[in-house]
Amino acid sequence: MKTPLLFQKAINIGIRPELDLIEQKKTRLLNFMVILGQLHSLAFIIVNIMEGHYWNVGLLSLNVTGGLLFLFINSYHFIQTARIILTILSTASLCLSSIMFQNGNEYYFITNLVVISLIFKRTSAIIWLSVLTITCFVFIRFTDTTPWMLEPLPHSRVFINMTSALILAFLGLIYYRFEQRFYEQQLQQSQVILEKKNSELEESNTTKEKLFSIIAHDLRSPIAQLRNILDMLNKQLLSQEDFYKLSEHISLNVKQLQGGLDNLLQWSNSQLQGIEAHPQKVDFKSTLAQVISLMQAEIENKSLGIHIESEGGPIWADPNHLQLVLRNLLSNAVKYSYKSGVIHIHHYTLNHEVIISIADEGDGMDTEMQKQLFSAANIISKRGTLNEKGTGLGLKLCKEFVDKNNGKIWVEAREPKGSIFFVSFPATI
């Protein structure tokens, strides 16, 4: 496990975040080729020591030193300088070894041409360095360099070096292709993420536009009614007796307005700061009792009955989030119930989950509305049975808060009429 990690670190020498993907790919490719060259030189240093070719050992040692120098300069992010130095040193080294030992090292110029064509940006640099490399290769192949030969090496070394040069060039191309495919995959993933972000942004903008429209029409209306009633009272156009008769209507308007504004503030906070859940053991019965107490006026206004079956255990959730979810679901059930109806609340445990269902006896909803109910791109604000208004944010908030507490929420049609909402939370251990 240590060797691949060390090799991976060596491949990434000189890589920094500000480099574009192409330059990162080129840098990795050159590091890969240099590391392979280093391993090749070290192997032949051992072979030449065993065969007594010490002059070749010295030149190969210089090759290793040059490769280490390249990696060192690369690590300080002088990438272009390191590439030029490496090209010049490798060309000089290959010329010297080919002339002095006639060992076939000129075939490594093929590898040099592959590397030059792949790593340099400027066309002029590619042309000049390629011309230099080809000139050196032609000079060595078609010139009698015997007078300059220092020490002949076995003829088999020519075949080995020629084969190694071709293999090294092939491996370089394969690695380059591997890097190409890797970055293509990254690009595709980035494109998918970008499209998802754009889609979410469009949905968010659509939600905000619809939300502002609802606020402009629905939340302003109760305030205008309250203001008119109070103006009439102040101008003595409305008697105290008539005002008392309207007080129940005023109270309901205020509570509806308060619920809408509370949902709006909760939604705005979730969009700006995100939702952070702090789950703990929560008793369902006491939490539900608090929610019913807060909504007692609305329940009594419609003469609704609340039928509760509580068979489940404690819930593992954020208590504030659970209360918000129950308040919104019960508020919806009240809103869409007819007078003298019954709301059924069932609390039970199933497969390490606590499930809560809240069912009303209203008109229900079709399948298409059920699908869109929790969608981020749609705000559905349907008036209640007594023309109650809402912002349409309640169920979206429920979805966000339930998700943050590792729960699930869904809706089903209730026979013979009405809707039934389900919420599941993890059960406590």
UniProtKB/TrEMBL annotation:
<keyword id="KW-0812">Transmembrane</keyword>
<keyword id="KW-0418">Kinase</keyword>
<feature type="transmembrane region" description="Helical">
    <location>
        <begin position="158"/>
        <end position="178"/>
    </location>
</feature>
<feature type="domain" description="Histidine kinase">
    <location>
        <begin position="214"/>
        <end position="429"/>
    </location>
</feature>
<dbReference type="InterPro" id="IPR004358">
    <property type="entry name" value="Sig_transdc_His_kin-like_C"/>
</dbReference>
<keyword id="KW-0472">Membrane</keyword>
<feature type="transmembrane region" description="Helical">
    <location>
        <begin position="29"/>
        <end position="47"/>
    </location>
</feature>
<dbReference type="InterPro" id="IPR036890">
    <property type="entry name" value="HATPase_C_sf"/>
</dbReference>
<keyword id="KW-1133">Transmembrane helix</keyword>
<keyword id="KW-0808">Transferase</keyword>
<dbReference type="InterPro" id="IPR005467">
    <property type="entry name" value="His_kinase_dom"/>
</dbReference>
<dbReference type="GO" id="GO:0000155">
    <property type="term" value="F:phosphorelay sensor kinase activity"/>
</dbReference>
<dbReference type="Pfam" id="PF02518">
    <property type="entry name" value="HATPase_c"/>
</dbReference>
<dbReference type="InterPro" id="IPR003661">
    <property type="entry name" value="HisK_dim/P_dom"/>
</dbReference>
<dbReference type="InterPro" id="IPR003594">
    <property type="entry name" value="HATPase_dom"/>
</dbReference>
<feature type="transmembrane region" description="Helical">
    <location>
        <begin position="107"/>
        <end position="138"/>
    </location>
</feature>
<keyword id="KW-0597">Phosphoprotein</keyword>
<protein>
    <recommendedName>
        <fullName>histidine kinase</fullName>
        <ecNumber>2.7.13.3</ecNumber>
    </recommendedName>
</protein>
<dbReference type="InterPro" id="IPR036097">
    <property type="entry name" value="HisK_dim/P_sf"/>
</dbReference>
<feature type="transmembrane region" description="Helical">
    <location>
        <begin position="53"/>
        <end position="72"/>
    </location>
</feature>
